[in-house]
């Protein structure tokens, strides 16, 4: 059996003395500690950067929520501003009527106010749904009554009780209508028998 003894010699290298080996280890340890400190500093900076970016994101979310709430709060501002002159005209018409003036100017004034209101609504994308004479459409009409009629096509709108309106493509209010239906032939036969 052969015994191997390490006497500190390596092939081609001279044996190192203990102080030299200690110095080399100390230098290597110092280099590793410097690398570790550098990595710690980079990690700390990365963490601080992440915290700042997270805080910036939270601040951005809060600011966007505030701006959204502010926008919602004043979304109708332009429409309401456009309605104020109409309110003024109605108040003038009422004041004129209360002063005992002639009724004809009041009627003309109210007609002008109505036209102004329709113009404002149209300018803001509100349109009236034309119902009378059109086929009944449950997406834009609400049937209040079904009326037997031989003069109108079945399922057509024969009377509009209240107009419907759209805001661009969205229904604001359906038109309240009466819808034609074909006369019941059984009722007609029963009347003939009487």
Number of helices: 4
Morphology call? elongated
| Amount of helix | 55-70%
Distance between the termini: 136 Å
What kind of sheet is the major sheet?
3 strands, antiparallel
**CATH domain topology of the largest domain:** Nucleotide Exchange Factor Grpe, Chain A, domain 2
Number of extended strands: 6
Question: Kindly state the mean pLDDT as a whole number?
Answer: 85
Please tell me how large the radius of gyration is: 44 Å
Order of helices and strands: HHHEEEEEEH
Instruction: Give the CATH H-level superfamily of the largest domain.
Output: Head domain of nucleotide exchange factor GrpE
Given as residue ranges, the uncertain stretches (5+ residues, pLDDT < 50) are 1-5, 7-11
Number of domains: 3
Q: What's the arrangement of strands in the largest beta sheet? A: 1-4-5
CATH architecture of the largest domain: Roll
Text of the CATH class of the largest domain: Mainly Beta
The secondary structure category is alpha+beta
């Amino acid at each position: 059996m052969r015994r191997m003894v390490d006497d500190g010699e390596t092939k081609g290298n001279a044996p190192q003395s203990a102080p030299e080996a200690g110095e080399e280890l100390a230098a290597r340890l110092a280099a590793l500690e410097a690398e570790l400190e550098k990595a710690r500093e980079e990690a700390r900076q990365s963490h601080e950067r992440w915290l700042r970016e997270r805080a910036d994101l939270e601040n951005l979310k809060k600011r966007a929520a505030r701006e959204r709430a502010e926008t919602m709060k004043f979304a109708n501002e332009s429409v309401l501003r456009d309605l104020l002159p109409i309110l003024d005209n109605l108040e003038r018409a009422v004041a004129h009527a209360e002063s005992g003036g002639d009724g004809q100017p009041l009627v003309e004034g109210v007609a002008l106010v109505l036209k102004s209101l329709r113009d404002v609504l149209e300018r803001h994308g509100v349109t009236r749904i034309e119902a009378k004479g059109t086929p009944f459409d449950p997406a834009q009409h609400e049937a209040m009554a079904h009326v037997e009629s031989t003069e109108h096509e079945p399922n057509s709108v024969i009377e509009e009780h209240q107009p419907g309106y759209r805001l661009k493509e969205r229904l604001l209010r359906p038109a309240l209508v009466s819808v034609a239906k074909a006369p019941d032939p059984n009722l007609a036969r029963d009347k003939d028998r009487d």
